[in-house]
C-alpha cells in the first residue's frame, strides 16, 4: 500500500470558516463525489458592482439552531449542476477563501438551497485537490477549528 506523507488527512466532517464572507464555525461534510463545493444560500439577488456581476444572499449556518448571515460576493460563473437525484439546477458560482485547520486557500462554491440537508456546506473534490487533502471517511473533525488569529493573518 502506498502512503503519501506530504498530504494532510481530514475526516468525513470538518470545521471550516469562510473569512471573506465573515463566517466562522461552520460544519462541512466532505463529498468526494461532488466536483464543486456548495454553500446553502437563499434570497439570492444578482446586482452590478463596479461593472461586474455580484450576488447578495443569505447564508444559513447551523443545524439545530439556525443562524442567518447576509453576504455579498462576485459571481465567477453560472453553472448547471446535476444533483444526486438527477435534477439539473442552474447555480451562481462564487470564489472565496476557505479556512480548514491551519490552511487558508481560495475555492469556488455554488450557491444552492440545502434547507432539507443536514450539512449546510459540502466540500467537493476540487477544493480537496487544491489543498492536497486526503479523506479518511472513518474519522470526523480531525483538524482543529480555524482560529480567529489565523483568519486575521490573511
Automatic annotation (TrEMBL):
Per its UniProt record, what Pfam families does this chain match? Zn_protease
Q: Which residues form the Retropepsin-like aspartic endopeptidase domain?
A: 9-146
Question: Sorted alphabetically, which Gene3D superfamilies does this protein's record hold?
Answer: Acid Proteases
Q: Which domain of life is it from?
A: Bacteria
Which InterPro entries does the record match to this protein?
Asp_endopeptidase, Peptidase_aspartic_dom_sf
Which protein, by its recorded name, is this?
Retropepsin-like aspartic endopeptidase domain-containing protein
The source organism is: Metapseudomonas resinovorans NBRC 106553
